[in-house]
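Usage

Read records sequentially. Each one opens with the input sequence:
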Amino acid sequence: MKNVRYLIDRLNAEKRLDKAEWTELFSSFDEGDREYAAEIARDISLSVFGNKIYIRGLIEFSNHCKNDCLYCGIRRSNQNITRYRLTESEILKCCDEGYSYGFRTFVLQSGEDMFFTADRICGIVSSIKERYPDCAITLSLGEKSCDEYKAYFDAGADRYLLRHETADKSHYEKLHPDDMSFDNRMDCLRMLKEIGYQVGVGMMIGSPFQTAEDIAEDMLFISGFKPHMVGIGPFLPHSDTPFHSYEKGSLELTLFCLSLIRIMHQKVLLPATTALGTIHPRGREKGVLAGANVIMPNLSPTSVRKKYQLYDNKICTGDESAQCRGCIERRMQSIGYEVAVSRGDYNG
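and closes with the structure output:
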């Protein structure tokens, strides 16, 4: 059995490990090993980005979804949720507020809502670009056709986030209903990259049935696909899903994964997610100190934030946008970092 720190050093030197080595890392590390990886990852992040943290203004514009993912609070079978959709004018108002607070990237996220046709999304994207040509637009709308992805891109969308959730097909099938396809998810990611988007992937750490081998597959996928962004967070159960009784994912394992991704893929955009802040009061700060360099405060109207609950007890559902912006700035300053007013593009 190889020493965990030897493997971390190997990863730092060579930027790759094989599946058995990844599996050993996730099976054998302790808190000292995690801190060792975090120190390396933090040094890399500081050397690439300085002490700047990129902020993205998140606008959750619809909680309607045609899918029935077993872990998700806005799944179509959930009858205990109040559904909503923002209008184009409401979305633009969120952007207006965000721009005044220094946001130069807007992330438009929703369930897979069939009301928002390609024409509607393209109209919204075009309107934002016309009003704020210096801003980047990120979409996170799920699985679409190649033609739809291309239309969004041509309208001005710059980035697309589509979490793969797990790179192991059999594990994927345990988390999703039969009408969803692992192969289609992977095809969508390849299409997005071919079109020219900056592409984000991501996975849940500690999701039901996940093994060390599954996370090893995730790392091999990230190594090969070379995404521009990787969004990971601990699995957090929602009370109105089939996985309501499962344990939360591990904060420590999530932080370890963040550090290893930074070590492997030095220039990747790596968020300290809301889920990290939910599982621990200083989770986002811990994420940054583990190598993350992006935070996504919520710009959605406070009237709808509690309705976009992918998991229970999500933080910041009652804060106004200005409060979110100010809170993040103070939190980052407390650990020696500064919020950057820029698009924060991938520069790999």
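Summary fields computed downstream for this record:
- Strands lie at 52-55, 57-62, 105-110, 136-140, 159-161, 198-205, 229-234, 294-295, 338-340.
- The longest strand covers residues 198-205.
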